Write a sequence for this structure.
């Protein structure tokens, strides 16, 4: 045993020589009867003479080995005690080596066991300062080699801190196991897991003492009995301390299974009847021990006793919402409303599932608001119901139930689940390695059910819009029919699904409950809730039963006739099986059936089939990548075989509302991946000749390509000019979409979550979208993509005469000029003579036959179009081509190949940005005139901005409206498009691009464009005016700052009105509005709504971020003056005002974070952590003097901390498993900021802000993270955590430092050990 630790440091004679010297010294001291102090001095000389450090691992190993061979020698025990007290050996090392030896011999050596317990009680937390790393490593290796800690616990035990935590926990388990054995108690094997020293076979020294019964004295028997009780008393005393609590929490958070084993042992002991009446007193000790251990689960940190702890512990002000409208809902839930309102902007196509983002928001707000799940879900429903007033039902009836389903099925991480009743924490296996905490799962489900029961009180929000009145009545009738059947018995005859009719009473709650039942979030017991079934129902005779549903006819095998197709298009499917059958018809039916099935699946089932909408979306994506048919052969792509189906599908899915629905479900990257091969194939096909294509009823190749191509381009900002330079990040590129798609596929392939019914039924069919997709796989698409980027980045270079591109461009010019000539001659207007030269000055042919158009593949046409545009735009600029003919030529080009609109937009946008084209007068002669209503449009723009609190700049009067030539050409082209539903795929591309292009024009161009469009489409008047108002905010920073300030003031009140800030409730209706303006009422818009419709298009996001931070800090400072003044001592005395002010600060921060996240999500959050906040903290600003300056500085720091925390929580999530869209970015963002904080604390950078603000910011931010997002701590480098903890300790924030390290995992155990000496 004496050589186990190795002899590298024992001098020239090795470990044997060292042990000989120590043994001789001990013999001399024993012979002389020396005191333990003399023994220590003699042995210390031996250690030092061999060149070893103190405390000595070699000496500790030798002493324990010597003692183990003779437990009955008192002098050795005394010397061991003194050696540990005098730091001659490491007490942790000695106890670790001694524990298994003593426990295995406790029956044979009860005296040794008693002495060991005494040493354990005195030296468990005595962690010596070992001077060198080599000595520390030697001690750790010796302990691990003897106890096999790394093997038993499955971790790399590399530091003394690791060893201390595991030894302490293992000792508790081992003593309890030994005591149970001594008392004759047997626990089930599942509760007797590894971790007990007594279970280590190579240390077992149990001896058969039955033969010694006659020799055993009564005293030794008494000692054995008392040792069990004393062992429990020692454990009770040890676990009572804060040090024990800190160590046990590390085990609980990092090894929940091991800790649960300890809890099971305690529960077993509490439930057992002890065999001896003399041990009844042990019950009291066990009760106290159990109470100490359970404090780990119900841990409430002493952090609360500090000011920052009181500040963080203040709960949100939870008002009782008005049962009529819910308008008084607490402001702490406002992020729900803001996010949902932002998600309903159809112009934005988020790349991330709205369900996933909303799920993370639910977890973040539930934690931050310290709310029950009933409160959380009720607030969620009320926020979603507000959208019903704007006729937005997808969020309420599909997205919110899906988000709640994710919350209910979330894999509970036991390390972050704190329960005061561990006996109720039962783990249940769901399969695939996933386990959930049944108690937490039950609490969430019960919270959902009770929230829906309470929802019935909000009658003002439950009235269904006319669109879904029948659906609501049907849902109520279904509940009435079901409950009627249950009351009459299931054997009743003649009762059909439509045997009850609801006269009135079907409301939104009935639709919500049906949406939840459809997703198995609850069962039909909801039909029996009090008041759920309307009283105004009556039975109707069988003869009055309604006609069979068209979906029933389809499922029964009915032929897809024209009437049935129309009915199926207009009627949403009711179940998954109906959509699944339709999917297979679209793949395997006749061409007519394929086309009809695609049309049906993009109809009401996708737009209004809320109970199954997520399934319909997945089928649409899969149909975009149909599999290779069984009978396909030949070189032609199988996509051509699906042309009828794909045509119907592309045009059906290209509507603005449908694309928005697809984006809400987060399938934009998957749709892009599916469209790329379609574009590559159809763009490479040579179409039929002009005459044949017009005579044929088959869809043309150009139309299918254009539909797919324009659909693809809508998914990213393909027209963004070079001036933006990627300010929003990689979201602007097709490469980023593919990177996201491929990342999701990789993520899904490693995800062991059970597949839903869609996956299980359709994964049998291979799909190209399931594979990794790269743009390089599609050379023709990649060539256009590169050309488009070059066109945007720099002026167009010349094309070589005679090249293929040159020849194609001349053919296109010939087609355009033939149309111009024909139009001019028919109208008798010969003012314009088409030039006789084409691209590069080469002659063009004017002898094309009527309707004879170039027969080229679409990619060749797109490649030549930029040169065509340059030629005709130059001709118009120099007077060789009239503006009317220019517009006619552009329109003919779009009619020829609709996909050419994309190149037209890119080219004109880039040319407007470069500013090389002069303005042209919009006078009604050369170009369309807006003078008919431009003044009214400008007035309405001012009015709508004024209603949002923005002073818009005045427009000059009496000036001829002018636009840059490319802008004028683009506007003139777009107003020629018919307002037909079939052309919506073109309008959806042209509208946003034109608005973006206008933002780069000099002067107020948007009123001119808006005037022209309102003249054309009067029913779009309000939408156009709002769009024009947004353009003002994109071009004018002062107007943007006014709007953001108006958002804060409308919600919280003006910052100068201190009484209102603290006494009035924040007004959500003031921020977002409560209704849409009726016809004839002057148009107005709430500031928050205008902001949400504009913020994504703001070019200077850094200015927006600075503006929001400035307002958050200003409101925090103003709130401080209302609480108290001059010192933190007085702050503590004003508990009521402090509570109110703290709640308001959180509301200010939540508003600021919500507004910032709406503008940029992850990119702005990253900039906030890495640049914006560090700049604010390091930049010197004007100090506040006089009364209230201390409190103002403090509250500024708190407001900034809440703001930063909330922003990161909303963008990255707080759960252990980072949100899918963040991947590794969350750990990077948080780690960078924590490194910055640690660097400033260590003096590596000089502060610019007030020291009070700095301390408040760090204390509050760390407190928020450890309290509500402990998973973030694990993602920070443990060296950084140690640096932060040491500085917090220097600020006397010991509890905050401990809380930080406790959540850092095993990596921070070494740092935690540094603080044990100062823990009370």
């Amino acid at each position: 045993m004496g050589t186990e630790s190795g002899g590298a440091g024992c001098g020239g004679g090795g470990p044997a020589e060292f042990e000989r010297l120590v043994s001789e010294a001990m013999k001399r001291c024993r012979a002389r009867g020396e005191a333990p102090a003399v023994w220590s001095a003699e042995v210390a000389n031996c250690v030092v003479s061999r060149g070893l450090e103190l405390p000595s691992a070699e000496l500790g190993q030798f002493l324990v080995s010597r003692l183990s061979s003779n437990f009955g020698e008192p002098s050795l025990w005394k010397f061991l005690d003194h050696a540990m007290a005098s730091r001659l050996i490491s007490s942790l090392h000695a106890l670790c080596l001694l524990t298994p030896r003593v426990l295995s011999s406790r029956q044979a050596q009860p005296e040794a066991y008693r002495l060991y317990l005494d040493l354990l009680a005195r030296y468990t937390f005595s962690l010596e300062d070992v001077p060198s790393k080599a000595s520390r490593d030697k001690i750790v290796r010796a302990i691990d080699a003897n106890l096999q800690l790394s093997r038993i616990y499955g971790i790399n035990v590399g530091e003394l801190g690791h060893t201390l935590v595991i030894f302490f926990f293992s000792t508790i388990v081992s003593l309890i196991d030994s005591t149970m054995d001594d008392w004759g108690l047997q626990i089930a094997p599942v509760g007797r897991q590894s971790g007990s020293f007594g279970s280590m076979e190579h240390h077992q020294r149990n001896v058969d003492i039955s033969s010694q019964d006659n020799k055993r004295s009564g005293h030794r028997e008494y000692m054995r009995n008392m040792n069990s009780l004393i062992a429990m008393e020692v454990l009770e005393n040890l676990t009572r301390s804060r040090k024990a609590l800190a160590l046990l929490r590390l085990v609980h958070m990092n090894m929940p299974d091991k800790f649960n084993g300890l809890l099971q042992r305690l529960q077993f002991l509490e439930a057992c009847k002890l065999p001896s009446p003399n041990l009844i007193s042990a019950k009291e000790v066990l009760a106290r021990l159990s109470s100490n251990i359970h404090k780990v689960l119900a841990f409430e940190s002493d952090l609360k006793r500090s000011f920052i702890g009181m500040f963080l512990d203040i709960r949100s002000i939870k008002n009782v919402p008005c049962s009529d409208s819910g308008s008084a809902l607490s402001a702490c839930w406002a992020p729900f409303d803001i996010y949902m309102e932002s998600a309903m902007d159809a112009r934005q196509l988020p790349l991330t599932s709205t369900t996933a983002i909303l799920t993370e928001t639910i977890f973040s707000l539930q934690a931050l608001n310290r709310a029950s799940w009933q409160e959380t879900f009720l607030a969620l429903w009320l926020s979603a119901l507000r959208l019903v007033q704007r006729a937005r039902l997808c969020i309420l009836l599909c997205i919110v139930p899906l988000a709640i389903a994710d919350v209910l099925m979330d894999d509970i991480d036991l390390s972050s689940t704190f329960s005061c009743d561990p006996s109720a924490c039962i783990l249940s296996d769901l399969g695939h390695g996933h386990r959930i905490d049944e108690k937490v799962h039950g609490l969430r489900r019960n919270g959902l059910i009770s929230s829906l029961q309470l929802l019935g009180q909000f009658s003002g929000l439950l009235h269904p819009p006319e669109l879904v009145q029948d659906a609501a009545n049907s849902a109520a009738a279904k509940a009435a029919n079901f409950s009627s059947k249950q009351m009459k018995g299931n054997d009743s005859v003649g009762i059909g699904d439509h045997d009850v009719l609801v006269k009135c009473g079907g409301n939104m709650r009935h639709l919500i409950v049906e949406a939840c039942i459809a997703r198995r979030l609850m069962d039909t017991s909801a039909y029996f809730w009090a008041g759920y079934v309307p009283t105004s129902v009556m039975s109707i005779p069988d003869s009055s039963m309604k006609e069979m549903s068209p979906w029933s006819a389809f499922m029964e095998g009915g032929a897809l006739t024209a009437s049935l197709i129309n009915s199926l298009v207009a009627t949403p499917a009711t179940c998954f099986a109906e959509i699944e059958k339709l999917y297979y018809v679209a793949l395997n039916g006749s061409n007519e059936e394929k086309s009809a099935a695609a049309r049906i699946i993009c109809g009401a089932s996708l737009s209004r089939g809320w109970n199954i909408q997520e399934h319909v979306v997945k089928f649409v994506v899969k149909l975009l990548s149909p599999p290779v048919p069984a009978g396909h052969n030949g070189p032609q792509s199988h996509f051509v075989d699906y042309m009828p189906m794909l045509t119907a599908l592309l045009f059906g899915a290209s509507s603005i509302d449908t694309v928005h629905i697809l984006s809400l479900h987060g399938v934009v990257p998957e749709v892009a991946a599916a469209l790329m091969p379609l574009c590559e194939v159809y763009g490479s096909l040579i179409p039929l000749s002009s005459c044949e294509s017009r005579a044929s009823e088959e869809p043309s190749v150009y139309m299918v390509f254009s539909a797919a191509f324009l659909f693809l381009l809508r998914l990213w900002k393909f027209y963004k000019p070079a001036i933006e330079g990627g300010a929003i990040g990689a979201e602007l590129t097709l490469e980023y979409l593919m990177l996201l798609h491929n990342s999701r596929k990789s993520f899904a392939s490693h995800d062991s979550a059970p597949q839903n019914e869609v996956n299980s039924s359709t994964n049998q069919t291979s799909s190209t979208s399931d594979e990794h997709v790269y743009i390089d796989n599609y050379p023709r698409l990649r060539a256009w993509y590169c050309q488009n980027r070059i066109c945007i980045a720099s002026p167009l270079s010349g094309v070589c005469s005679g090249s293929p591109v040159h020849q194609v461009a001349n053919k296109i010019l010939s087609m355009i000029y033939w149309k111009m000539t024909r139009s001019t001659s028919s109208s008798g207007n010969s003012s314009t003579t088409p030039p006789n030269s084409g691209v590069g000055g080469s002659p063009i042919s004017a002898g094309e036959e009527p309707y004879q158009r170039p027969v080229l593949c679409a990619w060749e046409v797109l490649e030549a179009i930029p040169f065509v545009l340059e030629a005709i735009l130059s001709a118009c600029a120099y007077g060789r081509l009239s503006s009317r003919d220019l517009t006619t030529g552009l329109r003919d080009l779009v009619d020829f190949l609709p996909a050419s609109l994309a190149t037209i937009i890119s080219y004109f946008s880039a040319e407007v940005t470069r500013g090389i084209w002069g303005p042209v007068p919009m006078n009604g002669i050369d170009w369309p005139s807006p003078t008919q209503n431009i003044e009214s449009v400008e007035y309405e723009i001012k009015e709508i901005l004024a209603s949002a609190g923005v002073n818009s700049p005045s427009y000059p009067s009496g000036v001829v409206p002018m636009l840059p030539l490319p802008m004028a050409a683009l506007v003139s082209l777009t107003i020629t498009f018919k307002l037909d539903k079939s052309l919506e795929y073109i309008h959806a591309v042209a509208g946003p691009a034109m608005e973006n292009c206008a933002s780069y024009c000099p002067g107020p161009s948007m009123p001119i464009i808006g005037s022209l469009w309102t003249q054309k489409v009067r029913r779009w008047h309000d939408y156009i005016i709002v769009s024009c108002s947004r353009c003002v905010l994109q071009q004018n920073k002062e107007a943007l700052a006014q709007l953001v300030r108006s958002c804060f003031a409308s919600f919280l009140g003006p910052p100068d009105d201190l009484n209102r800030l603290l006494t009035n409730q924040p007004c959500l209706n003031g921020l977002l509005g409560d209704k849409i303006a009726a016809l004839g009422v002057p148009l107005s818009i709430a500031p928050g709504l205008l902001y949400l419709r504009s913020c994504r298009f703001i070019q200077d996001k850094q200015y927006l971020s600075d503006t929001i931070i400035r307002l958050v800090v200003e409101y925090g400072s103003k709130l401080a003056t209302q609480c108290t003044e001059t010192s933190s001592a007085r702050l503590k005395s004003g508990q009521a005002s402090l509570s109110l002010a703290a709640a308001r600060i959180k509301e200010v921060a939540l508003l600021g974070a919500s507004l910032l996240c709406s503008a940029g999500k992850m990119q702005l959050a990253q900039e906030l952590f890495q640049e914006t906040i560090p700049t604010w903290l390091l930049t010197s600003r004007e100090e506040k003097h006089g009364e209230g300056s201390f409190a103002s500085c403090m509250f500024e720091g708190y407001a900034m901390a809440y703001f930063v925390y909330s922003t990161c929580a909303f963008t990255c999530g707080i759960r252990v498993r980072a949100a899918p869209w963040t991947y590794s970015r969350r750990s990077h963002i948080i780690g960078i900021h924590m490194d910055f904080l640690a660097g400033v604390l260590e003096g590596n950078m000089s502060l610019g802000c007030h020291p009070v603000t700095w301390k408040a910011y760090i204390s509050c931010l760390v407190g928020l993270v450890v309290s509500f997002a402990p998973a973030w701590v694990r993602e920070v480098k443990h060296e950084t955590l140690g640096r932060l903890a040491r500085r917090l300790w220097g600020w006397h924030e010991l509890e905050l430092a401990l809380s930080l390290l406790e959540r850092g995992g095993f990596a921070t155990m070494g740092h935690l050990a540094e603080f044990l000496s100062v823990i009370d």
Remarks:
- The chain has a mean pLDDT of 80.
